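Example (one chain per record):
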Amino acid sequence: MPTHVPEPAPTPALADTGPLDRERAHLAASRTALRAMRADVEALDLGNVTANWVNTQILERQMAERVKALADLSDTPLFFGRLDYLHAPPLSAPPPLSTPLERGHPHEQGDPHGAEEAEGAEGERFYVGRRHVHDVDGDPMVIDWRAPVSQAFYRASRKDPMDLALRRRFGYTGGDLTAYEDEHLSDPAEASATSKLLQQEIERPRVGPMRDIVATIQPEQDEIVRSGLSGSVCVQGGPGTGKTAVGLHRVAYLLYAHRERLARTGTLVVGPNRSFLHYIEQVLPALGELTVGQATVDDLVAHVEVRGTDDPRAALVKGDARMAEVLRRALHSHVTMPTEPVVVVRGSRRWRVPAYELEEIVRQLLDRDIRYGAAREALPQRVAHAVLVRMERAGEAPDDRVQDTVARTGAVKAAVKTVWPAVDPAKLVLRLLADPDFLAEHAAGLLDEDERKAILWTKPARSVRSAKWSAADAVLIDEATDLIRRTPSLGHVVLDEAQDLSPMQYRAVGRRCTTGSATVLGDLAQGTTPWATRSWEEALAHLGKRDAVVEELTAGFRVPTDVIAYASRLLPHIAPGLTPVASIRDNPGFFAVRPITGSGEVVSACRELLGHEGSVGLIAADARVPELARELTAAGLGHVAPGEETTHDTRLTLVPASLAKGLEYDYVVLDEPCAVVDAEPDERTGLRRLYVALTRAVSGLIVTHAAPLPEQLLPH
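Predicted structure:
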């Protein structure tokens, strides 16, 4: 597998001297074509295609998004691969284009086959890139990586060449094409070899936000990325296996294949914290997808202001799935059976519905098990219908308007208010947490006395506004809200770092995709909450996605061999059944464990690692962060907090261990492993937190400790 690293690029005036120059010429032509596509969109006259101001506004918004998606990022290659097929892939006619914005952008129609991407291409050669680019005649110059014709770039092998004569990978320096590498998959005479360009891309230094992996997606990852919209997928993946990137790229693929449907229903990425969301926020825009929402679970359930915290015991009980039944019982306790008839006066006549018939109506609504609010809205219509039956029996001919009028009469409204009163979800939760008798009544057989005491407030709040709600309380309010009125469902939800969610949090996320699908991402070994997921089967049941397919990624692309081997010493103690990650990196990485006598040596380790290219993270137990910040400042080492942008001059991030999950740095200094473990409420959670901190490094790790190391890290 020859790798070509040429001399500096010739000037345009020089003649073509080889394949690399031809590839550079195609890159330059593709960039020109992309600029022309953008100019075409900007030049559209919407007055000729819209009938009213509403359509104009919608198209203007679509056009602005399209223009943004067609941005030519100078440091982002337009294509990263080339496929030369032995035979032309089968093509089908493209779907009709319904608006000017869709012309020249086939995947906006949601074509699942991508056939029109290939139509008109030169011979059987296709350039694979982050987005579709076509020339002035509409012939594609770059094929979207999500099109089926591009699939061979990720899955073809010598065992199954997928009709490829050649797969070419390109190497870039910044935005300049500087190298290429060929595989002749259908040539039995060519020996198999590891792709050096692929390895270089995997091991490239990490500076700034997370980037896409479209040039390095592996076959097992591609299989998950291209799985269908109708099914949910759960990805168990150890550190550095690319599960987050796989989840984000799956969203991009689904938007390509099902754009119209997801445009109506929406997509959402749910992450563990704002720092993590900030870290991943550029991945989808780099792939041309600008409409995917991002949120934390706390954002989803923000019905009240969270100003309080729970101790671990209270949070554990509040997060238990049994609380859903407690809330359901408490809510329906407000429904009382009628004891008086309803008498409706219309003109000179009085229409009487007896109490026993009203009770039958109420019981029918309860048996249907519909939302509390929906049943309450249906009740006056049911009562009014009973009145209309009596009118018809008396020889009258009432219509629907009469039924609506009867449903709005004072007598019917008063009966509904008494029998099925309106309930505020926050007030319902407030009463449960403040009233021991009310809680005991509705938690009978579900929570024992100790569990009830754990969640009861010692000083009950007077009102919803004055209460010091905790994050777990907000989830309970969200559950109560859904019991009253159904939560709208999205088309697809990606849930990352899912292992840390409580059962009630899973239910909160699951409500957002009841009629859609989900991609669940996580690592059982990295669960660092007292309620951390014990099994994916249990978690998926709480999410409402029992039928989700569970996939496991075990090939490590990020963490060096020596580092992951050291961290894996903890696995028998934190997740005995999991397969250790096997690093596929050529570079074993830099790794050292250093006994120290003071914080000054931690600063020295940071200074040492800053001598290398790339980002540096100093990870420490939360309580030690202020002291280390003072030491770094005194030593003149500038640093930022997680979520803040690093710069060329400030590449060091000081990371509390509680925020390290999901982040990555080229080099890491891990301060005092024992302090990281001891900061957690129990040893298993502490060891899991340590496992997370140990596996944030991409190129090298220095572990510094004055206290003895945890015995689980010692060789046995």
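Caption: The first strand starts at residue 3 and ends at 4.
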